[in-house]
Amino acid sequence: MATSSATASPLPQDRFLGMKITPITRRRLHNFKANRRGFWSLWIFLILFTLSLFAEFIANDKPLLVRYDGNFYAPVFTVYPETTFGGEFETQADYRDPFVQDLINEKGWMVWPPIRYSYRTINYNLSVPAPAPPSTENWLGTDDQGRDVVARLIYGFRISILFGLTLTILSSIVGIAAGAVQGYFGGTTDLLFQRFIEVWSGLPTLYLLIILASVVEPNFWWLLGLLLLFSWMSLVGVVRAEFLRARNFDYVRAARALGAGDALIMFRHVLPNAMVATLTFMPFILNGSITTLTALDFLGFGLPPGSPSLGELLAQGKANLQAPWLGLTAFFTLAIMLSLLIFIGEAVRDAFDPRKTVGPLPGTGSALKPSARPVAKKAAAE
Amino acid sequence: MSELLSVRDLSVDFRLSGSTMHAVKSVSFDIKPGETMALVGESGSGKSVTALSILQLLPYPVADHPGGSIRFKGTELVGADEKTLREVRGDRISMIFQEPMTSLNPLHSIEKQINETLFLHKGLTRSAARKRTLELLRLVGLPEAEKRLAAYPHELSGGQRQRVMIAMALANEPDLLIADEPTTALDVTIQAQILELLKDLQRRFGMALLLITHDLGIVRKMADHVCVMNHGEIVEKGTNAALFAGPKHPYTQRLLAAEPKGNPAPPPANAADVMTARDIKVHFPIKKGLLRRTVDYVRAVDGIDVTVREGHTVGVVGESGSGKTTLGLALLRLHASQGAIRFDGKDIQGWQSAKMRPLRREMQVVFQDPYGSLSPRLSVAQIIGEGLKIHGIGSGKEREAMIAKSLEEVGLDPSSRNRYPHEFSGGQRQRIAIARAMVLKPRFVVLDEPTSALDMSVQAQIVDLLRDLQVRHNLAYLFISHDLKVVRALSNDVLVMKDGKVVESGPTRQIFEAPQQAYTRALIAAALNLVAVKTGDVRM
After folding, report:
1. Residue A109: inside a domain
2. What PROSITE patterns does the record point to (chain B) (predicted)?
3. pLDDT greater than 80 at residue B290
4. Do B471 and B405 reside in the same domain of the chain?
5. Is residue B235 part of a domain?
6. Tens-digit pLDDT profile for residues B180-209
């Protein structure tokens, strides 16, 4: 009964980035792109994130390339003693030292990254006491230990995102597995697991972190592990509900009649349903993870002292109200980063919304039937 | 006599994502006071959309009327303002919907819901409205109406809910009642009662009835005039007698010829027993009290014997809730049960799932809802090939060939195997589901209402296909259905179930021609002749 839609058999674009995709996936990509704000946010975020992955090439206290006495040196990758360049010490060359710079420039040249500070480089050459205000040398000023804010920002952004992503992915894996088992088997398994989660979620995370901080020096992995102990529960509810619903579907029953085992049914037939809810939640969990790390750093229970982190920058901003560039920088970075992720999350949510069709789908018969029944069925089929 | 409702050149377009779909194209018909007009057509023919546009209930502005007029007692309804429409809706024209489960608000009592229309249109006081509501509930034959006033929809059965819906629709004595598939979701015996009720009420109030249905049996019994719709157009209209006696349009002829006909294939002589079950019981405990002690059981299946032989079909008939599906699942060991189940001479009751797995390829199942039984994220080839993969049958190439062959066998184009279920119609999906079962070369197949979600013309094709496959592969079928016409066309033996017990069983011919039990007689009368038989056996 649809006029514009012919049979949609050999579709023009059933490939995306070289991968074979289903018509459902194509519709989702289309919906995602239709949310302009989210689409652009994704690009901006990806560019920023990719750039920050190469932070060592953007902000570093070592040159990218050194030409000295007819030879090339790459101090970013290799440690060279000062003696290599005709200095006196066996220790690593300090390329910011005017003496070493003169030595190298005498017999060659250096290519510096755009920002000549690493996250832990202290600028001893400040004309005012630290924290120094923005200048041509330190674009966003320095913090109260004389370290360049831009450099710390780039490294801090990277560690926040990496931490957030790792925590999100790991807690999703654990959460999906736990929710799947609960929802699929139901009954006593479900009951016991649910009670366990209720008890577990009652444990005070912050106290555990404080106790941990007094026993070991918390690093990236310690924090990740400890936060993972509690963060996996956020997805369990959604996944469990999806599995509880889907295990009574006829196609699950049909698979059982075919002789499929529980693991196969869970993985192949039910999990794809749950993935919709999961993927919709993911950007928001990512945001939550980033905020958690920032909060811990702000309170001083996070990454070890000296690590570049946005939370630490915020704490410095609070301690140095006379230096507003610290607080403002941290605030804007966090605000922009979290907003970008929320916008992406909204676009993902649109993409997975079965009722949403925005604009014509290229080359498909997307005409829905008008009466309520087929639409409901379509929704159920998604 | 002047027309009560006159629809002229009505068109409905739906604008969806840039494309326009013409759901209804230039439809015209008239309804006179007191007469019954039936709109017949298969799903997607635009009959419901036509009915909804009379009350202007379509999702505007997605829906749009490019042309046409609907005049009710001389008032134009297309594009009328909200005030005019509100005066007509629920007062002069009422509507009842297909799904009695969802068309009543689950959070309001029956009394409150019926009162609402009385408050809105009649401005009655509370006590007056209560009196009127009680009167209406008695009128539609709700038993113990007084007690039911405070009941909530979930406390009523499907048929009772539909009666409440009708009471609501009649509250203001409308001139026209639109009934959109009023009995499709109901059991056959209830269906007959509801139709009789509608007819009776129509006589009493002298109202006109616009009946929307896909069931030609209902049309033949109820309608004065019939309009046959196909692809948004009325292809034929005429009086009931004229249309059924001599259909002119080829589509109408096809529709009339589409009723499942024929007889089951003669079974092979001295066929071996494939599935024998003795005293099958499935009981669900009812737990009560603080300690959740089991106080009683819901006896879904209560001591049933059944034997299915090679090349034979055993039909299981009964109304919803009679335990037919549970019996089928219990035989396949997909549902825990008690009693002896012998498959191919082996007592398989209590076998672990790993031990069952090799047998799974020999016993298969086809489900009712072709929309729900195919995983929406797998392609057709993956769906059909899954069983082959699980049982390690064939290499990749051989599997591909087997999938193609099974698609061909069920009448689908093998080149469509890389498509996804949502690209297929209901009938095609059911063929895919059948192909998934057949590709494993099973010996015993449980068919759980395989035709009831399909259009009439498609039903007949599926019945033919199943019969054909049975003869070719000497299959044993357990055919579960509430549709007696289909059962008659396919089964050698019939088992009539009620509340988990067998009421009557025997060869199909004997059951249909000389039913021994009152319940069987009522069921057959209701299903084949749409006659409500008043016996204690049939629930309200």
Report:
1. no
2. ABC_TRANSPORTER_1, ABC_TRANSPORTER_2
3. no
4. yes
5. yes
6. 888 877 777 778 888 888 888 888 888 999
Q: Which amino acid is at A142?
A: T
Touching check for A264 and chain B: CB below 8 Å?
yes
Last residue in a domain, options B224, B256, B288:
B256
Number of domains in chain B: 2
Residues B32 and B148 in one domain: yes
B527 three-class SS:
helix
Mean pLDDT of B262-283: 81
pLDDT at A338: 92
Residue A194 confidence (pLDDT) = 92
The answer to the question of residue A266 being in a domain is: yes
**Is there a single domain that holds both residue B191 and residue B323?**
no
pLDDT in the model for residue A41: 93
Question: With 80 as the cut, is the pLDDT of residue B245 above it?
Answer: yes
In whole angstroms, give the CA distance from residue B223 to residue B218: 8
DSSP A105-120: HHHEEEE--SB---TT
Between A22-31, A193-202, A271-280, B6-15, the lowest mean confidence (pLDDT) is in A22-31
Q: Do A24 and B353 touch (CB under 8 A)?
A: no
Do B244 and B384 share a domain, yes or no? Answer: no
Q: What is the Cα B325 distance to its own chain's centre?
A: 15
Residues B69 and B178 in one domain: yes
**Residue pair A23/B421 in contact by the 8 Å Cβ criterion:** no
CA-to-CA dists, residue B13 to A3, A282, B67, B169, angstroms? 11, 39, 10, 28
Q: Which of A269, A371, A375 to mutate to test the interface with B (most CBs of B within 10 A)?
A: A371
Hey, are the CB atoms on A258 and B360 less than 8 Å from each other?
Answer: yes
pLDDT of residue A371: 37
Q: Is residue A257 part of a domain?
A: yes
Compute the half-sphere exposure of residue A244: CA atoms within 13 Å on the CB side of its CA.
15
Residues B250 and B321 in one domain: no
> What pLDDT score does B479 carry?
92
**Interface membership of A22 toward B (CB under 8 Å):** yes
Q: Does B387 touch chain A (CB under 8 A)?
A: yes
Shortest CA gap A308–chain B (Å): 44
Site of tokens 């499942």: B260
**Helices and strands: H and E segment counts in chain B:** 19, 21
> B419 contacts in A (CB within 8 Å)?
9
Q: Is A66 exposed, middle or buried (0-12, 13-18, 19+ CB in 10 A)?
A: buried
Report the residue from B49, B356, B423 with minimal CB separation from A370: B49
The structural domain count of chain A equals: 1
The residue length of chain A stands at 382
Task: Tell me which residue range forms the domain holding A176.
Answer: 150-359+371-381
| B192 and B73 within one domain | yes
Q: What is the pLDDT of residues B383-404, one digit of tens each?
A: 898 889 888 888 888 888 999 9
Mean pLDDT of the B2-22 span: 82
**Given CB atoms, is B377 within the 8 Å cutoff of chain A?**
yes
Q: Mark which of B240, B256, B272 sits at the end of a domain.
A: B256
Residues in A closer than 8 angstroms to B329, CB to CB, are 253
Give the model confidence (pLDDT) of A56-100 as tens digits: 888 888 888 888 888 888 888 888 888 888 878 888 888 888 888
Q: What is the model's pLDDT at position A23? A: 67
Instruction: Let me know if residue A179 belongs to a domain.
Output: yes
Strand partners of residue A177: none
* Amino acid in position B64: D
pTM (global) more than 0.80? no
Q: What is the ipTM of this complex?
A: 0.73
Residue B12's domain comprises 5-256
Residue A127: the pLDDT is 81
CA distance linking residue B429 with residue B422, whole number of Å:
8
CB atoms under 10 Å from CB of B155, counted, come to: 12
The answer to whether residue B284 sits within a structural domain is no
**Structural domain includes residue B200:** yes
